[in-house]
Specification:
This protein is an alpha/beta fold and about 425 residues long. Helix content is about 35%, strand content about 15%. It has two domains: about 290 residues, Type I PLP-dependent aspartate aminotransferase-like (Major domain) (Aspartate Aminotransferase, domain 2); about 130 residues, Aspartate Aminotransferase, domain 1, CATH 3.90.1150. Helix 5 links the parallel strand 2 and strand 3.
Amino acid sequence: MKDKCRPATRALHSGYDVRQNLGARAVPIYATTSYVFQDTQEGADLYALKKPGFLYSRLGSPTVSVLEERLAAYHGAAGGLCLASGSAANSLLLMSLTDPGQNIVASPQLYGGSSTLLQHTFRRLGLGVRFVDLNDEEALRAAIDDQTSAVFGEGVANPSGYILDLEKVAAVAHEYGLPLIIDNSAAPPPLLNPFDYGADLLTYSLTKLIGGHGTHLGGAILEKGDFDWGRTARHSKYLNAPDPTYGGLNFWEHFGRPNYQRGQSQVVCHKIRLDLLRNFGPTLSPFGAHEFLLGLETLPLRAQKQAESAQIVARHLAGHPKVAWVNYSGLPDSPIFELAQKYFHGLPGAVFGVGLKGGFEAAVRFIDHLELWSHLANILDARSLVIHPASTTHQQLTPEERAKAGAPDDLIRLSVGLEAVEDLLEALDSALAKV
């Protein structure tokens, strides 16, 4: 019954049965590396994938499993896989779908770490990337060829705030038999569920709004479950081919083809868990999973409140005489205001950018005098945060690359928290008075 409920209810109950856990109301932390087999046959069946269960905590634990199931239920997805960081989620997912010589078509409006991953690390592995404005349909089509493996972007780009026209991008990707992958770290439901608009796979930095308290690193991959991975030969070397490490098992034929038309395929999550997670080992600890389960319980309330406060802060700064620009798509003069209305009902998250008159020097002086807001490299904590991306998160990029990524040298990134919005405005005004 609980998984037929609304998302806010699923965030509290899905994936866990108190009757199977000695009546414990909170999800227990299973602090163990290994799990006892009842006999040799059970051990053999678990390793042969003939029976579900737990083998070794590098591949999963009961605590992590509850988080995976709860995140999937919250998004209306078939399944999920949790990892040690958001970067691990993006790395393993994109690596799993792309063979050497193939390419990923990606938005240039990405978090700096993701840009570096695609431009440098992946290219060393022989994986190509083509950066294009995904909202430009002609450019998107021109970038896709018969060696393209996926289309990748962010629901709300960090730090630029750029919004993808998800329905349009998904339609083009699907026309070519490609999955649309969205890093949705900045705007999880109730703000945005990209599965509602055609996305096939989501990634998250759980460290951000889902965790919400800045206490642990984690990431997730969520699989909607209705993508036909057997449609083209693009993914045949990995998902739709005999796996020599599992006795020639074809994961698509075993896990995917029988289930995808019912929206229940978890072939990508299963394959990554039993291959890349097993071999590279970026495992989420049960302690971290417990922290994220607590964050998920209050996510619907926090996300809405922080987005509402962010809109108040953006409107206030837009009218300040020392502010040169405010890059918040919920303002009517934003060039993507219509997309903010379409996908976010006017509340496009709690992170946005501001530029001050005086440029780089003014930005530095402002941050150094700003109280209450924490100056650090994170977003979407319960506390309000501020950073200068050009000198921190995006410093490894050239000025031209920073501009393309939506992080010009004068950008100040604000992440609005749960403090009284009046206190936040007073702190901003006090720092601006010293610029």
